[in-house]
From TrEMBL:
Keywords: Cell membrane, G-protein coupled receptor, Membrane, Olfaction, Receptor, Sensory transduction, Transducer, Transmembrane, Transmembrane helix. It is found in: Cell membrane. Putative odorant or sperm cell receptor. It holds the Pfam family 7tm_4. It is a multi-pass membrane protein. GO terms for cellular component: plasma membrane. The chain crosses the membrane at residues 29-52, 64-86, 106-124, 144-168, 202-226, 247-266, 278-297. GO terms for molecular function: G protein-coupled receptor activity; olfactory receptor activity. Gene3D superfamilies: Rhodopsin 7-helix transmembrane proteins. CDD domains: 7tmA_OR10A-like. This is Olfactory receptor. Residues 45-295 form the G-protein coupled receptors family 1 profile domain.
Length: 319
């Protein structure tokens, strides 16, 4: 159940508040506990992946290097959104200053874009591993891996800075200044501007194409070559293992790009603010939570390393 917000003093500096999920105290408590548990599970699962990759030499390969970076991104990504979201579920809503909203948007867009670019890098890694296995170690050097991760972050920073700075040059007005969302995301903030936003929406669409459409097409091309190479493998077991190494990545790709495309690439005339907020819950909670589950439950190396780490820890505590 959604509620209207009170009228805010127009003479003070620009501030925003988020639309509440519900005003029923019992539901507020349930939502707070649910989102807090999901957040703790995201932190725990992704931290475990980063830790096990960094501490086990058997996992120091390009694939696990990218996986640990993806998990670290998920930790930062959710930490930009969830703590502020939790603080606004219970009690009086806390106004967010203009600068604070801009900072959250900048880091949210930067980390989300880096996440999308990193999935392309991981697809390229799988392409080289399956289509050019004999040259894999020569192509996927440590230097190249670091350069690709740095390039993904650099491009995301550039696009996010341009988009955020463009949006926050707009004047914001209205007696409510209420964001129909749980974070300072681009579309709901744009709706509060009291100026012509056609140029800003066009820029948002271009950034969405660069961050979502182009990477997704590159991933599709990579998997066309990967599928062709796998089908040429004579051994059924070899084909199964090759498909298994790619299925986890494909699951994350479809979930991430699918949900984000529904929010950022749909025509504005066909969008609903409430639908956008519900979809945003998927890529804020579900995708970061599924990443460690998908990659650990379907990966024998990671499961084995985690099992050995737990056994070693238990043995050291009993001695």
């Amino acid at each position: 159940m959604l509620t209207k917000s009170p009228v805010f003093n127009q003479s003070g500096p620009t501030e925003f508040v988020f639309r509440v999920f519900t005003t029923v105290p019992e539901f507020q408590a349930l939502l707070f506990i649910l989102f807090l548990l999901l957040y703790l599970m995201i932190l725990g699962g992704n931290t475990a992946i980063v830790w096990v990759v960094c501490t086990h030499t058997s996992l120091r390969t390009p694939m696990y290097f990218f996986l640990s970076n993806l998990s670290f991104l998920e930790i930062c990504y959710t930490s930009v959104v969830v703590p502020l979201m939790l603080s606004n579920i219970w009690g009086t809503r806390k106004p967010v200053p203009l600068a604070g909203c801009g900072a959250q948007m900048f880091f949210f867009v930067t980390l989300g874009s880096t996440d999308c670019f990193l999935l392309v890098v991981m697809a390229y890694d799988r392409y080289v591993a399956i289509c050019h296995p004999l040259h894999y170690t020569f192509i996927m050097t440590q230097k190249l891996c670091i350069q690709m991760v740095t390039g993904a972050l650099g491009l995301a920073l550039f696009l996010s800075l341009q988009l955020t700075s463009l949006i926050f040059t707009l004047p914001f007005c209205g007696h409510l200044r209420e964001i129909n969302h749980f974070l300072c995301d681009v579309p709901p903030v744009l709706r509060l501007a009291c100026a012509d936003i056609h140029v800003h929406q066009a820029v948002l669409y271009v950034v969405g194409v660069l961050v979502l459409t182009v990477p997704f097409l590159l991933i599709c091309v990579s998997y066309m070559f990967i599928t062709s190479a796998i089908l040429r493998i004579r051994s059924a077991e070899g084909r199964r293992r090759a498909f298994s190494t790619c299925s986890s990545h494909l699951t994350v790709v479809l979930l991430q790009y699918g949900c984000c495309s529904l929010v950022y690439l749909r025509p504005r005339s066909s969008t609903s603010e409430d639908e956008d907020r519900q979809i945003a819950l998927v890529y804020t909670f579900v995708t970061p939570l599924l990443n460690p589950l998908i990659y650990t439950l379907r990966n024998k190396d990671v499961k084995g390393a985690l099992r050995n780490a737990i056994i070693s820890k238990a043995a050291s505590e009993t001695n």
